[in-house]
């Protein structure tokens, strides 16, 4: 995974703007990096804060000075990073209280202080209020960088205290070219599966998740042939060492592929088993589309709804899947 945003072509214009603003001393004390997840928001935030703390001039960190070395070692006294934690993946008031303590100390490396707060939409109400106090009375020479996938979910008062920097998604062409350059095979399918997250696509590739695709196909066929019960398949999928989201996106891709073929398109047929595509071939496209939507909705819920029982949801989906395919007979 490239660590410099200079290797993410879609972020380069933003980085150039930030550098310019820094050199003109027009960087505000709090920035909110908002946009799609997995476009490099974490890398951009880290690079920005590293450059801010670096002893050399400019926003591009030198990588050599004492400050850069301390940051690389994870022991910089003037850097504080907060992330969601616990089963609920929330940012709680205890974490935010560290900011006040941290702010009260003088910068030890003499180059200001930097605070990174990732996934700011995960702040609970008390934590958000505590953060607001810090943003309203910002400590001197301190840079706050917040990242957030859904800025509209943040408290309006927090949003208004930060300057929003909207991070763009790469275009499909740009993303596929970039992923291919990183050595990703089947870049188009991975790009589709991640719904526009190039870093997620790269991560899934690095974790070799393509090896699971034939297994998912076998399982989907096995439920249609009544060789496997939906409950058995759902339990097996949940036992695998990977999240369920890629399976749902891959499955949605199958339906997408089928509707494209119905419309006479070519697409990436090699990613999906022909036998499976044949089973769907005569279904009306509106029914395929409805199920496609159902898959993507569940995928979105998996990442954002707490206390959710994925195995039951997947089982229900597999029951609907069998019903859908059998309905054409
Ligand atoms: Zn440096």
TrEMBL record:
Catalytic reactions of this protein: DNA(n) + a 2'-deoxyribonucleoside 5'-triphosphate = DNA(n+1) + diphosphate
EC class of the enzyme, as a word: transferase
Keyword terms: DNA replication, DNA-directed DNA polymerase, Nucleotidyltransferase, Transferase
One Pfam family named in its UniProt record: DNA_pol3_delta2
GO molecular function annotation: DNA-directed DNA polymerase activity
EC numbers, comma separated: 2.7.7.7
Domain DNA polymerase III delta subunit C-terminal, residue spans: 246-321
Gene3D superfamilies reported in the protein's UniProt record: 1.20.272.10, P-loop containing nucleotide triphosphate hydrolases (3.40.50.300)
Key word Signal present: no
NCBIfam families tied to this protein: holB
Protein name: DNA polymerase III subunit delta'
UniProt organism field: Balneatrix alpica
Record gene name: holB
């Amino acid at each position: 995974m490239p660590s410099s945003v200079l290797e993410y072509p879609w972020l380069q214009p933003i980085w150039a703007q930030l550098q310019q603003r820094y050199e003109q001393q027009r960087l505000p004390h709090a920035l909110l990096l908002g946009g799609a997840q997995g476009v490099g928001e974490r890398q951009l935030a880290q690079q920005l804060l590293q450059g801010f703390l670096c002893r050399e001039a400019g926003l591009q960190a030198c990588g050599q000075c004492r400050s850069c070395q301390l940051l690389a070692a994870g022991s910089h006294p003037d850097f504080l990073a907060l992330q969601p934690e616990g089963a609920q993946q929330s940012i709680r008031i205890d974490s935010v209280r560290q900011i006040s303590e941290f702010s009260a100390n003088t910068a030890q490396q003499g180059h200001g202080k930097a605070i990174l707060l990732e996934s700011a939409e995960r702040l609970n109400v008390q934590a958000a209020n505590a953060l607001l106090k810090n943003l309203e009375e910002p400590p001197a020479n301190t840079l706050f960088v917040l990242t957030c996938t859904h800025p509209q979910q943040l408290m309006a008062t927090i949003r208004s205290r930060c300057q929003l920097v909207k991070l763009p998604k790469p275009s499909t062409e740009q993303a596929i070219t970039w992923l291919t350059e990183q050595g990703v095979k089947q870049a188009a399918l991975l790009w589709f599966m991640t719904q526009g997250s190039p870093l997620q696509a790269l991560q899934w590739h690095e974790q070799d998740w393509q090896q699971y695709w034939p297994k998912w196909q076998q399982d989907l066929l096995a439920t249609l042939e009544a060789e496997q019960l939906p409950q058995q398949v759902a339990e097996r999928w949940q036992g695998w060492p990977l999240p369920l989201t890629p399976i749902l996106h891959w499955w949605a891709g199958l339906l997408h592929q089928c509707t494209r073929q119905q419309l006479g398109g070519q697409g990436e047929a090699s990613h999906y088993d022909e036998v499976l595509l044949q089973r769907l071939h005569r279904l009306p496209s509106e029914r395929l589309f409805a199920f496609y939507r159902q898959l993507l909705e569940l995928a979105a819920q998996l990442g954002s709804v707490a206390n959710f029982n994925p195995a039951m949801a997947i089982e229900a989906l597999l029951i609907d899947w069998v019903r859908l395919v059998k309905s054409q007979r």
